[in-house]
Write a structure and sequence with these properties.
Keywords: Glycosidase, Hydrolase. This is Glycosyl hydrolase, family 31. The chain has 11 helices and 55 strands. The protein is an alpha+beta fold.
Length: 873
């Protein structure tokens, strides 16, 4: 047995030990961290939580980063340090990190001492660099990635990859791409790369610049949208070519950079084989793919626009994961140990919990580009109610400011003569309003002239400099006086990247700092300004912020995101689902998309092929954290598409509203427990290889497996049912199925495959027209037999922050499968307006009962008055 030195736990006392004849010169153990002095710099191990350790590698005298992510002031966790001649180990209850004195490699282990992550030998890199003639560092860390590892995250991307092990990505903020430097692994860890600027994930250093040839294809005129409004553009496709010579056969990761701030087309062909073919009016400047190449020369063709300057980067896929940032003060990352829920919960505990979303935000959100007048908006809200189509929120998109200039913080009275009466009428219909507000302000508007005079713009742009606290306060002051007074319910902060990655080569915060340092965190500053302003000036109403971009920690500002201005085709639908699941793996829990696609065909109202797409978009979106429709230059209301489409959409609106007790209870789990509602399968089935390979299936809460239809003309599809000891039950017909198998499912336009885990209890509410509608109809408690199960129901007022004062209630449902009894616990807690008496219809699901959207055969009806009950069935 090796001799070990054990460091005692200390409270503020620094213990310094110098070790001779090793690369490690000395070790200091402080209350909050352990610092190892290496020849190359200082390596700090910082316990953050019982399952989280932060690692920093810096040069002596380096200034610490401004802390934007880890904002929660938690006590320093107790930890233990042991040492022998070969290693030093820092241990907490849920994670340990071992420093090898010979190789200087860090190895991370979970509570069972199983290796979950390891640095590569020589994989720590820090190099002096500069940005805008100011000193900085380029940093890089390489980790070992076994072949059987599956990695998820880095945010919402448009490349279509859910498992990103080995994939090259460039993390910048642009329309349709949300970059979050966080990954979640099937090996039982999460990793947050603590850098606010551009980050390359698995960077490829080999590249080839493509040469333009001739234009190909006819010129096409299209409608597009951006910060300057609606524009018609003429576009023509151009061809670019090159060749690469790879040294050996195998898998290669490719990153195509079109050479502009935004792309309109990805078209990559290698040796005549199409690798990528994506068109949209907005695309990020880079996309990625993994391909198989044989050793030798390969011909490359890229198609794009005249001014593109495409570069193809490539690297062999190997057993490593790499993070690199060209602008940094130090190398800085945090490792979280545990399953998906444990990782995300720990991340939120350190970076801030997600506040409860309002109950009404979890119903249906109806949006279009755009309502042109107050009368038009009200007319459509009334028609939803007249047609008995459930809705909770209608959205006013841009340009309501009219003659006053872009985002002037006021309504043009020529088209919106009385916003106050508009809000009053909407609220009388129990409809909420979300309104589009931008971080860009017309410099010629009244507000813009003041901002310009005070120096509150980012120089050379129309974007407000939210990094300047005075500029942020100015923005909120005008927001409050111009818009908040009307009682508007939710705030759509559009283009918060800022659009087109616009901080590059600019100065921020009174021109004190290069924009590259904070290149990816502008959306968080915007959301912070709005959320903190709402909490101060509208404290009695629960905030909801809707934004097009995000960053780690932004969940604490009640911010939800969506996938940006995307197309409508099947491939785009598939990529949005994958992108949303990628964001869910990073800890930001609220997300949706433009159901039906933002850019739609000109004949959308009569095109039956598009109707099929629209239905499938809406069916999938029913099981997203937020359910929303949107479309460019479109009247997106369901009745515009004919009776058949309207009927199917109505059914899924009914299903969404029936699921609200389940969804709202999960809303509480997100906020109180750090849970995730839309769940990539790695969160629940990390050891099931077949589950990990499903790109489009996901769990909706703990019980419902969703398998969206993502192709045309499907009447039968293969669904994988993950390994689950009790199996699964078909939601639509009550048929039980074993877990760990593929099953063929009959599909028609009315149904998307849904399966419920055996042993689940689903609380379903009555049909409603809006989320808070009072009704005397009973809840339906569906029990899916085959295993014991439980579910905790949560309720509160749904509209304010009284839950933060303990004003909410919960009760537990527990199913005993062997003796067929349901136990309902005592109700715990209370809140204003709580129903003392609740009627429940209890249904045991079989092929004959408890199937589909609507209530059916009841096993037993009971009255629950808050006291424990045992019901035999």
């Amino acid at each position: 047995m090796r001799n070990k030195r054990k460091y005692i736990r200390t409270t503020g006392i620094i213990l310094l030990f110098c070790v001779a004849l090793l690369n490690t010169a000395c070790v200091s153990k402080q209350k909050e961290k352990v610092v190892l002095e290496l020849k190359q710099g200082l390596l700090s191990l910082i316990p953050l939580n019982q399952n989280a350790v932060r690692v920093q590698f810096s040069q002596p005298g380096s200034a610490p980063m401004e802390e934007l992510i880890y904002t929660e002031k938690l006590p320093v966790p107790e930890y233990e340090v042991t040492e022998d001649k070969q290693s030093l180990v820092l241990s907490l209850d849920g994670i340990s990190v071992e420093f090898d004195k010979g190789t200087e490699v860090l190895t991370f282990k979970d509570a069972n001492k199983r290796i979950i992550l390891q640095e590569k030998v020589g994989g720590r890199f820090m190099k002096v660099s500069s940005v805008q003639n100011e000193p900085t560092y380029q940093v890089e860390q390489r980790f070992v990635s076994p072949k059987d590892e599956y990695i998820y995250g880095t945010g919402q991307f448009q490349d279509g990859y859910l498992n990103i092990r080995g994939l090259t990505r460039r993390l910048t903020q642009v329309n349709t791409q949300i970059s979050i430097p966080f990954i979640l692994s099937s090996k039982g860890y999460g990793l947050l790369w603590n850098n606010y600027g551009l980050t390359d994930f698995n960077p490829a250093d080999q590249f080839v610049e493509l040469t333009p040839t001739n234009a190909s294809g006819e010129a096409v005129t299209v409608n597009t949208t951006g910060t300057s409004g609606n524009v018609r553009e003429t576009r023509q496709t151009y061809s670019f070519t090159a060749s690469v010579d790879v040294p050996r056969s195998g898998s290669y990761s490719l990153l195509l950079d079109v050479g502009q701030r935004m792309a309109r087309k990805y078209y990559l062909v290698i040796d005549g084989q199409k690798i990528v073919d994506v068109n949209n009016l907005w695309l990020p400047p880079t996309t990625s793919a993994i391909v198989e190449l044989t050793a030798g020369k390969h011909d490359i063709e890229v198609q794009g626009e005249r001014n593109d300057k495409p570069v193809l980067y490539w690297r062999p896929v190997s057993e490593e994961t790499v993070f690199r940032s060209p602008v940094a003060q130090m190398l800085d990352y945090t490792v979280f140990a545990g399953n998906g829920d444990e990782v995300i919960a720990s991340y939120r505990e350190l970076t801030g919990p997600a506040p409860m979303m309002p109950l009404w935000s979890l119903g249906y959100i109806h949006c279009r580009e755009r309502y042109n007048t107050q009368a038009e908006l009200l007319e459509n809200a009334r028609e939803f109610r007249e047609r008995k189509l459930p809705i909770d929120m209608i959205v006013q998109d841009w340009q309501y400011w009219g003659k006053y200039g872009w985002n002037a913080m006021k309504f043009d009275e020529d088209r919106y003569p009385d916003p106050g009466s508009m809000m009053k009428e909407l609220h009388e219909m129990d409809v909420r309003l979300m309104i589009s507000v931008w971080s860009k302000i017309d410099a010629q508007s009244e507000v813009g002239k003041q901002a310009k005079e005070k120096g509150y713009y980012i120089p050379g742009s129309d974007w407000i400099d939210f990094f300047n606290p005075d500029a942020a306060a100015f923005y909120w002051q005008n927001f409050r006086t111009g818009l908040l007074k009307y009682g508007i319910d939710a705030w759509w902060q559009d283009a918060t990247e800022p659009e087109n990655d616009d901080l590059q080569n600019r100065r921020i915060n009174r021109e004190q700092t290069p924009g590259e340092v904070y290149r990816n965190v502008y959306p968080m500053y915007v959301s912070k300004t709005i959320y903190e302003g709402l909490r101060q000036d509208d404290p009695d109403r629960r905030a909801m912020i809707f934004t097009r971009s995000g960053f780690s920690g932004m969940q604490r500002y009640a911010a939800a995101t969506w996938s940006g201005d995307v197309g409508h085709d099947w491939e785009t639908l598939r990529r949005q689902i994958v992108g949303g699941l990628g964001q869910m793996a990073t800890g930001l829990p609220w997300w949706t998309y433009d159901a039906g696609g933002f850019f739609r065909p000109g004949d959308q109202y009569t095109n039956t092929g598009y109707h099929e797409q629209l239905i499938r978009w809406i069916q999938a979106g029913t099981f997203f954290p937020l359910m929303r429709v949107h479309g460019y230059m479109s009247n997106t209301e369901p009745w515009r598409y004919g009776e058949k489409v309207e009927h199917i959409i109505a059914r899924y609106l009914d299903l969404r509203y029936r699921l609200l007790p389940y969804i709202y209870s999960q809303n509480a789990a997100v906020s109180f427990n750090g849970s995730t509602l839309m769940r990539p399968l790695v969160m629940d089935f990390p050891e099931d290889r077949f589950a990990l390979e499903q790109n489009y299936q996901f769990m909706f809460g703990p019980s419902i497996l969703v398998a969206p239809v993502v192709e045309s003309g499907v009447n039968r599809m293969k669904v994988y049912l993950p390994e689950c000891s009790a199996g699964w039950v078909d939601f639509w017909n009550g048929t039980p199925h074993k877990g760990g198998i593929f099953t063929d499912v009959n599909v028609d336009l009315m149904k998307t495959p849904l399966f419920v885990k055996a042993g689940s209890i689903l609380p379903l509410g009555p049909q409603k027209q809006y989320a808070s509608e009072e009704t005397e109809q009973p809840w339906e408690i569906r029990i899916y037999p085959g295993a014991d199960g439980s579910y905790s129901v949560y309720e509160d007022e749904g509209i304010n922050y009284n839950y933060e004062k303990g004003q909410f209630c919960t009760f537990d449902l527990k199913w005993n499968d062997s003796d067929k009894t349901l136990t309902i616990s005592d109700r715990k807690g209370s809140f204003a307006g709580m129903k003392e008496r609740m009627d429940f219809n209890i249904v045991i699901v079989t092929p004959e009962s408890g199937t589909g959207i609507y209530q059916s055969k009841v096993n037993k009806s009971i009255v629950y008055e808050g006291k424990s009950m045992v019901i035999s069935l």
